[in-house]
TrEMBL record:
Residues 358-440 form the GPI inositol-deacylase PGAP1-like alpha/beta domain. Coiled coil: none annotated. It comes from the Bacteria. This is GPI inositol-deacylase PGAP1-like alpha/beta domain-containing protein. InterPro entries: AB_hydrolase_fold, PGAP1-ab_dom-like. GO terms for molecular function: hydrolase activity, acting on ester bonds. The lineage of its organism: Bacteria, Bacillati, Actinomycetota, Actinomycetes, Propionibacteriales. Pfam families: PGAP1.
Length: 511
């Protein structure tokens, strides 16, 4: 039993190491519906892998505890046997105690008491053996039952995934049947039916994407935050209008494969105040003409040299305002209102995937001249939608397996609905009159790793939401605020104030 327990512990260690190895693999850049389903299947497989490793570990502990208890029973049996021999008794295979004393020792009046004492000890050991067997069987059986329940949960997840895919396929087949039938029976209806086919298929493609809150509920039973459900409903409802009108209204589209715009040397941050002031930099990567729709925003990845090197990722926020029609119609910049709603409701968006790919590419570019890094250290920063993107990336278990995310610093971002990895410390600033960070409705789940710093500000919401205002107020309050000072210490390896910090700029967005 001890050998089996030891072997299974070794198997658990191997499985866990392999599990972490698979998680840490940097996947190729791949986008689209098939990629989404592949990621869902991959997550399901890794979740089951981790569960089975845990199950095997529990089985090893039960067997090890049973072996220890059995050793104690065997020791008590040996003591009982020695006691019986010393008093000239034998214990048969059936447990019957027999006298082996010869005359005149057999006449000792104490032998009746010794016989009853030894017989009672035999009965006690038999009861302990039966109890041991029953307890061990129950504990192992409980593992089987729990695994069956986990299997039922996995079946529910599989059915949900299949239901989404099946509904899409069913509607797509029905639409095609109507178009084919109309070509024969009612040619004038072919055009409108084809328009409906395009619209409904497009809507089902979006509706078939499982939001993160649904996956979390299926995997963990955690109920969604209201803002997540509202965000998904807003995105789907507005996207449906676009599908019905044959436009790209509220269409998040597909991620853009990032391209290296170039590198720049900047002064590295020396404090949290500098990190917040730098949140304006990604906005400046766009050209001076806001009407130029061919200009994309860029993610900045700055290298803080050291052993190991560290990377500061600066993510742009919303670059197209609600007052512009381009902010509603799936612009290639990708950082617009559709992306905002989708990032809150789904935990993902085209520009989020594009940003993750840009981080991969920037670090691979650095590794091409400096050698591979086993698990690069990263600090994620962003303003407004940039903070949402940064927090969603920090909540992606596949990303945090590949990278050591040492923190998130955001300003004016509604991130309290995002299940950020609890090992990642988060600092989020919000102004009194800035309505944007309040759109998460405060969230409903406690996140001890998220520190919210309120900055009193009674100006108009637009001014209160701006990066310059946040930079000014963070600088004003940095000396007397314990949370800001704590993060200055926590993020000290990034806040070196180095000069000539190499910064990679990668264009991102949607196709």
């Amino acid at each position: 039993m001890e050998a089996e327990a030891s072997t299974n512990r070794q198997r658990v260690a191997t499985l866990q190491a392999q599990h972490q190895g698979v998680l840490a693999m940097r996947p190729p850049v791949w986008f689209g519906k098939a990629a989404d389903r592949s990621r869902q299947d991959f997550r399901l497989m890794l979740h089951r892998w981790a569960e089975l490793a845990d199950l095997l570990g529990q089985q090893a502990e039960i067997v090890s505890d049973a072996a220890a208890e059995l050793r104690r029973l065997q020791a008590d049996q040996r003591d009982l046997q020695r006691n019986a021999v010393s008093k000239r008794f034998s214990i048969g295979d059936s447990g019957w105690v027999s006298s082996t004393a010869s005359f005149p020792a057999s006449l000792d009046p104490r032998r009746a008491w010794w016989w009853s004492e030894l017989s009672g000890a035999v009965v006690s050991i038999v009861l302990r053996l039966n109890g041991f067997d029953g307890r061990t069987a129950f504990a192992l059986g409980k593992l089987v039952v729990n695994d069956l329940l986990d299997g039922a949960q996995q079946t529910a997840i599989d059915w949900t995934n299949s239901g989404f895919a099946g509904a899409q396929d069913l509607l797509s087949g029905a639409n095609q049947w109507m178009v084919d039938a109309a070509e024969v029976l009612w040619p004038d209806a072919v055009g409108p039916l084809q328009a409906w086919q395009r619209a409904s298929n497009g809507f089902m493609d979006e509706a078939g994407r499982q939001p993160r809150w649904l996956q979390e509920m299926l995997y963990t039973g955690k109920l969604p935050a209201p803002a997540e459900v509202l965000g998904q409903g807003l995105y789907l409802g507005m996207h449906g209008i676009g599908d019905l009108t044959g436009t790209q209204f509220f269409d998040d589209g597909s991620p853009y494969v990032p391209t290296l715009r170039g590198t720049e040397q900047i002064n590295g941050p020396a404090s949290v105040t500098d990190l917040v002031a730098n949140l304006d930099r990604p906005y400046d990567t766009r050209g001076p003409d806001d009407s130029d729709r061919t200009d994309r925003p860029a993610v900045e990845v700055s290298v803080i040299e050291g052993h190991p090197p560290r990377f500061i990722v600066n993510v742009p926020g919303t670059t197209i305002g609600m007052g512009s029609i381009n902010g509603w119609t799936g612009d290639i910049e990708g950082t617009d209102w559709p992306a905002d709603a989708k990032a809150v409701g789904y935990g993902d968006s085209a520009v989020t995937q594009s940003t993750k790919a840009a981080i991969d590419m920037a670090i691979r570019e650095y590794e091409s001249t400096h050698g591979p890094i086993e698990r690069p250290n990263i600090l994620l920063t962003g303003h407004s939608q940039g903070g949402i993107i940064a927090a969603n990336i920090a909540a992606d278990p596949a990303f945090t397996a590949r990278y050591q995310v040492d923190g998130v610093v955001s300003a004016g971002s509604p991130i309290n609905t995002i299940p950020i990895n609890p090992d990642v410390p988060v600092l989020n600033f919000h102004h009194t009159t800035d309505v944007v960070p309040k759109l998460d409705l405060g969230g409903v789940h406690d996140q001890p790793n998220v520190t919210e710093v309120h900055l009193p500000r009674w100006t108009d919401p637009g001014t209160a939401h701006g990066v310059p205002t946040y930079a000014t107020d963070v600088a004003t309050h940095s000396q007397g605020n314990a949370d800001i000072q704590r993060f200055n210490d926590l993020l000290a390896p990034y806040l070196t104030g180095q000069g000539n910090v190499v910064t990679y700029q990668y264009d991102i967005g949607r196709q």
